[in-house]
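Late entry, written up from scratch paper. The run itself happened at the end of the previous shift, but nothing got recorded in the book at the time, so transcribing now.
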Amino acid sequence: MSKQKADNQRFSRRLSELAARGVKSAQHIEEHAQQHISTEAAHLNKVRRVANRHRLLSILVPFSIVLLFAIYIVSPLSQVKTVQVVGNDELTSKAVMKATGVYPGRYMYGLIDRQKQVEKAAQNANHQLASVKIRLVGWRKLRVTVTENKILGLVTIDGKQRYLLTNGSWAPVSGKVPNDVTYENFAGHVTALQQTARQLGQLPEPIRHSISAVRYSPTKLNPQRIKLYMNDGNTVLVKRSSLAEKMNYYPSITSQMSGNGVVDLQVGAYSYGYGDKSK
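Output as recorded:
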């Protein structure tokens, strides 16, 4: 009986030990689970905070950029402070600025981003502008570089005097005429006038400036004949389509003339005196 009692006690102790181990294991599992849950919760909170931060930045950054740009374009910082006009000779800087719309105080927005359109519009507004380039060269400073269609003189178009330009177009007369060459007998012959102007525009300036008058003087043999009255007293006969090429011979021909006369460049290149009735 005592042996059975001892076995029962050992069995009870064994059960108690197993029960204690089970409780301890359960506590360990529970602690581990709680630790894992805490870690996961912390991670999820971190992910949520990062996502919220990114979402907030994705809204604030574009809004801030738009806001700053809006403030800039209506502030004096976006206005042109200085305009430098270069390349102009017969045109004043004021006339160039008027044609281009580029002047101090204007907002730069609409100039830089639409540069090609602005340049083209300037040429349409003033035919004396052969080309226009607008460049930002400093903080609020623009440089307008132009090349000009030079004024060849005065021509009457539709009963009004106009500047005749080297590209064959014309422009309204304004201010002092820089070149007082007159163009005669071109009424109703616009094509002939434009071709003559383009040919004259190709001449070197010394030769071009030695002309005092240009007359359209066609004949049956030469319907393109042009008469040039020169400042030195000579008269030149030339075909308008070859005027630029043939007038290059003029200085060498006149250097061999003993007096004033006619320089005939229609076919060849020769001269004769005004009193020579054989010509």
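The chain has a mean pLDDT of 82.
(Scratch paper discarded after transcription.)
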